[in-house]
């Protein structure tokens, strides 16, 4: 399946404007050379976002080469950490060995792990290869005043100690939500999230202008322009009833399938009741997981500064970036929207909402890895202790990043975390990304084998976005051999929290009747529903379809049977996709 528009990431055209219906415009007056379209090389991030997330951009033209002199591709990553296996971080001799190898670089690894009782109890059940962030400090005798670059440190470690000794060590990448065309509060000196900021609205790891920069209703589309996506969290009114749920005892497995959603959390909505699992809610949250994530981030920032807004609460939050102005942030409601799509496609499921994304749509792969390891331990314990209510069947991930390499060592941490879940019979469904590129977007692309085929992990499913008709690929959607499923993700409708922000309509006047006359208020989500676009939203459609098929299959209590059951549900969902014309 081929997008109708080729994206050259700023080579020959601009994507700065937005159409009157909220779509992104693509200037077609300058065709793109096909040899430039494949890999965006420079990530355009404002200084404000880099500062906010303690991040930097890897520039291939100036970066230290990696193994065999290979230059890396562009990526973004935390500027003061590396991810190191937990067992290594706890091994003082191993850390000392690494620090000896880094003397000439003038850098040392400093391990600062949380000391809270819940963290200590939780990590006792974690695998030793679970990656944790370790701080980079300048040595006291360092002759440079420049802050250490994690990529340079990593490349030196690999060169001096070799691949086996440095296995499982990597950058802590920034990961971003795979949705496009958002409003949202600005951060810092006027750099708007969702208006020229690649991370957080279309994620264009390229040197062009990202998808979306506001939604100028009434400013028609100029000549030579095409709307790449429609819907920018625009409020809509829905007149359909709440989908009906069946008694879980009547389902074939005797319980609800559980879909874990890694996103911005869950907001208040009448369809999406939140509660403990034993109360049979639509949505379950975990104070334990949120506490662990907050412990980890707080420990790092207590040592190095630069604290981010806490993710200790499971709630989708509205105006974190500029609370004094009260404008709804660009990705606020993203998790609630994703949850609603799972619910629409499988009302009988229970969603386990894990909040890992900030309201600007950014997280790190370190946070995602913590969520995946926590889920692995939950499933393992549930199987060992015969607690079927704690099992997880599907994981929906509407985020990702473009790694600096696609070799085994670069993708090892995330690929292994996904593999551990799929080996337990958990289907992992991930967004393909929104940049009209074939560059692998992970974790979705991690089903690839070394030869480029996509059979490496059959329970890892990469989802691209279709237009509403289901008959064409959304112009923004990534594509490649690694994109294995397709579902509508452009101009889809789902749930949003019942919020009223401060932005207000562009025009409002008291008419002759009792109600004022006004244009659409982009910050008024009190209807509870909105239209949005992105592979972020095709992903939970497929996750929900798989969950729906799981309601028809008897439960499994052994690992082998769970893997077989998951494969059967995937195959049945594939048949549904084929019948709908979404899969050939």
Automatic annotation (TrEMBL):
Pfam families: Peptidase_S8 (PF00082). PROSITE patterns: SUBTILASE, SUBTILASE_ASP, SUBTILASE_SER. Transmembrane segments: none annotated. Gene3D superfamilies: Peptidase S8/S53 domain. This is Peptidase S8. GO terms for molecular function: serine-type endopeptidase activity. It comes from the Bacteria. Residues 254-555 form the Peptidase S8/S53 domain. Keywords: Hydrolase, Protease, Serine protease. GO terms for biological process: proteolysis. The active site is at residues 263, 334, 536. Belongs to the peptidase S8 family. InterPro entries: Peptidase_S8/S53_dom, Peptidase_S8/S53_dom_sf, Peptidase_S8_Asp-AS, Peptidase_S8_Ser-AS, Peptidase_S8_subtilisin-like, Peptidase_S8_subtilisin-rel.
């Amino acid at each position: 399946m081929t997008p109708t528009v080729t994206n050259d990431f700023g080579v020959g055209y601009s994507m700065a404007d937005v159409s009157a219906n909220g779509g992104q415009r693509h200037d077609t007056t300058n065709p793109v050379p096909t040899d430039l379209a494949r890999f965006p090389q420079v990530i355009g991030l404002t200084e404000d976002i880099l500062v906010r997330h303690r991040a930097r951009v890897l520039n291939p033209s100036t970066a230290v080469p990696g193994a065999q002199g290979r230059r890396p591709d562009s990526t973004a990553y935390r500027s003061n950490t590396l991810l190191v296996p937990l067992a290594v971080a706890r091994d003082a001799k191993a850390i000392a060995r690494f620090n000896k190898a880094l003397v000439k670089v003038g850098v040392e690894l400093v391990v600062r792990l949380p000391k809270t009782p819940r963290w200590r109890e939780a990590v006792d059940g974690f695998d030793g290869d679970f990656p944790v962030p370790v701080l980079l400090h300048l040595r006291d005798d360092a002759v440079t005043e420049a802050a250490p670059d994690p990529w340079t440190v990593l490349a030196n470690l690999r060169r001096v100690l070799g691949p086996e000794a440095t296995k499982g060590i990597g950058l802590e990448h920034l990961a971003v939500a795979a949705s496009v065309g958002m409003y949202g509060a600005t951060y810092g000196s006027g750099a708007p999230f969702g208006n020229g900021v690649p991370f957080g609205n279309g994620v264009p790891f390229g040197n062009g202008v990202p998808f979306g920069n506001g939604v100028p209703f009434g400013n028609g589309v100029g000549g030579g322009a095409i709307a790449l996506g429609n819907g920018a969290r625009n409020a809509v009114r829905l007149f359909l009833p709440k989908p009906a749920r069946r008694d879980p005892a009547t389902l074939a497995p005797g319980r609800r399938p559980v879909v874990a959603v890694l996103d911005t959390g869950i907001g208040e909505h009448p369809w999406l009741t939140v509660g403990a699992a034993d109360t049979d809610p639509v949505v379950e949250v975990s104070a334990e997981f949120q506490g662990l994530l907050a412990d980890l981030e707080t420990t790092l920032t207590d040592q190095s500064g630069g604290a981010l807004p806490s993710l200790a609460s499971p709630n989708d939050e509205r105006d974190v970036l500029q609370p004094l102005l009260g404008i709804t942030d660009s990705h606020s409601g993203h998790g609630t929207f994703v949850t609603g799509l799972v619910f629409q496609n499988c009302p009988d499921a229970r969603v386990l909402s894990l909040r890992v994304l900030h309201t600007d749509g950014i997280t790190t792969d370190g946070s995602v890895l913590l969520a995946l390891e926590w889920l692995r331990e939950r499933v393992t314990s549930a199987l060992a202790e015969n607690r079927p209510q704690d099992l997880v069947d599907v994981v929906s991930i509407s985020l990702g990043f473009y790694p600096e390499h696609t070799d085994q060592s670069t993708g090892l941490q995330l690929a292994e975390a996904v593999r551990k879940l799929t080996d337990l019979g958990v289907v992992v469904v991930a967004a393909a990304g929104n940049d009209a590129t074939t560059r692998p977007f992970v974790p979705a692309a991690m089903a690839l084998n070394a030869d480029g085929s996509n059979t490496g992990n059959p329970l890892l499913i990469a989802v691209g976005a279709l237009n509403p008709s289901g008959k064409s690929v959304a112009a923004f959607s990534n594509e490649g051999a690694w994109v294995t499923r397709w579902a509508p993700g452009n101009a889809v409708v789902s749930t949003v929290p019942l919020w009223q922000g401060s932005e207000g309509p562009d025009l409002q006047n008291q008419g002759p009747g009792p109600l004022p006359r006004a244009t659409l208020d982009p910050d008024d989500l009190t209807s509870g529903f909105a239209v949005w676009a992105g592979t972020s939203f095709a992903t939970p459609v497929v996750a929900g379809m798989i969950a729906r098929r799981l309601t028809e299959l008897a439960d499994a209590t052994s690992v082998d049977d769970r893997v077989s059951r998951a494969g059967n549900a995937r195959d049945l969902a594939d048949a549904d996709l084929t019948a709908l014309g979404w899969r050939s």
